[in-house]
Every structure is written in structure tokens, then in C-alpha cells.
């Protein structure tokens, strides 16, 4: 199995993030969690647990809104608010994944001003649709190569068509089984 960069957006979630962390630990895998700042603030023990277990915690947003739907002033307020909330938790992000990966003309300049690297992904599991883990693995399998950045979600964000993260958890377990096999 290739060395993958597993990433999770839209958490932390009090139900699903602990289960994802358990699955990652069982498979001896590390991941990056791009958090929604108010959720991180509401669940600081999950942020601390992720960090203590060797995972990276980075910035997703304060409000999960496409940058193309925000004015530059609104975007600047969102990132400032998010960074303040994360700083209160002792988190100093160096990377930023924007909601839906959508950038506006101002996104790159704001990232530079805050010394943040904009991060995308190479492999989209589309786990937000609620597909089975097996279907997601079959669809993404050919794209899983060394250093591929895999997009997953440990929370239910806007636009999710699923009611839980069970198949995301199962996907991680399947990846973990293939790594340890």
C-alpha cells in the first residue's frame, strides 16, 4: 500500500472523530484534520487527543461558506475569527483548506498574509454522498499512490447527503487493513 496523506474536513465531531481516531490508531496511520474552528472550540479534548496521537490539526474555516460567496472583507473576518479560536486552543495552523476547496480572487493573498499554505487534495472519496466504503475504495483505488492527499470527512458539513460517517470510518478501516496485510 502506498504512503498516503489522509485528511479529514468538517470536524471535530463528538461521535465520529473519536471513532476515526481509534481506527487510525489501530492501523498506525497519521492524518491531518482540517477543523471548523467553532467545532474545535466546542470539542477541545478531541483536538488535544488528535495532536497527542501524532495527527496534525489545521484550519478549514470558521463558517463553512464557499469563498466565492463571501466578500473579501467577510473572508478576512472569517479567517481572523477562526485563527483566534484555534489560538485559544493552542493550535497555530500553517495550512488552510478552504470550504469545498473553492478559492476567490482574494483567497491566496489572505493565505499569504497569515503564512498559510493552501491545501487541496488528489483523491476525493466523495464520502459526503454516503457511498459504501467498498464502493469508495474501488473508485479511489487506482488513485492511491505515494503521497496522494486523500479527502475524507470526520463531520457532517453543509451539503452532506449522509446522516453519519460510518462509511468513512469503514473506509479508514479497509485502508488500515491493506496497510497491515
Order of H and E elements: EHEHHEHEHEEHEH
Q: What is the average of the pLDDT values?
A: 95
Shape: globular
Looking at CATH, the homologous superfamily is Glycoside hydrolase/deacetylase
Rg over CA atoms:
16 Å
As for the number of domains, it is 1
The CATH class is Alpha Beta
Distance between the termini: 9 Å
**Number of helical regions:** 7
Quote the beta fraction: 15-25%
Number of strands: 7
Helical fraction equals 40-55%
CATH fold topology: TIM Barrel
* Lateral strand order in the biggest sheet: 3-2-1-7-6
Largest sheet: 5 strands, parallel
Query: Any idea what the CATH architecture is?
Result: Alpha-Beta Barrel
Low-confidence stretches: none
Structural class category: alpha/beta
Can you give a write-up of this model?
This protein has 181 residues and is of the alpha/beta class. The chain has one domain: Alpha-Beta Barrel (TIM Barrel), CATH 3.20.20. It contains 7 helices and 7 strands. It has helices at residues 16-26, 37-42, 44-52, 72-88, 107-113, 133-140, 166-180, and strands at 5-11, 31-36, 56-61, 95-96, 117-118, 123-124, 149-153. It has a 5-stranded parallel β-sheet. Strands 4-5 form a two-stranded parallel sheet. Strand 4 (95-96), helix 5 and strand 5 form a beta-alpha-beta unit. Helix 1 (16-26) runs parallel beside helix 7. The mean pLDDT is 95.
Amino acid at each position: 500500500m502506498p504512503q498516503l496523506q489522509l485528511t479529514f474536513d468538517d470536524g471535530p465531531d463528538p461521535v465520529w472523530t473519536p471513532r476515526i481516531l481509534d481506527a487510525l490508531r489501530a492501523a498506525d496511520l497519521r492524518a491531518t484534520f482540517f477543523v471548523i474552528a467553532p467545532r474545535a472550540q466546542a470539542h477541545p479534548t478531541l483536538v488535544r487527543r488528535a495532536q497527542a496521537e501524532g495527527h496534525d490539526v489545521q484550519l478549514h474555516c470558521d463558517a463553512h461558506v464557499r469563498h466565492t460567496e463571501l466578500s473579501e472583507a467577510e473572508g478576512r473576518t472569517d479567517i481572523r475569527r477562526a485563527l483566534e479560536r484555534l489560538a485559544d486552543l493552542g493550535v497555530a495552523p500553517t495550512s488552510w483548506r478552504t470550504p469545498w476547496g473553492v478559492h476567490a480572487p482574494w483567497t491566496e493573498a489572505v493565505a499569504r498574509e497569515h503564512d498559510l499554505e493552501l491545501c487541496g487534495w488528489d483523491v476525493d472519496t466523495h464520502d459526503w454522498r454516503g457511498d459504501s466504503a467498498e464502493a469508495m475504495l474501488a473508485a479511489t483505488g487506482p488513485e492511491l499512490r505515494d503521497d496522494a492527499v486523500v479527502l475524507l470527512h470526520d463531520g457532517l458539513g453543509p451539503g452532506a447527503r449522509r446522516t453519519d460517517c460510518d462509511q468513512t470510518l469503514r473506509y479508514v478501516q479497509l485502508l488500515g487493513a491493506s496497510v497491515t496485510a
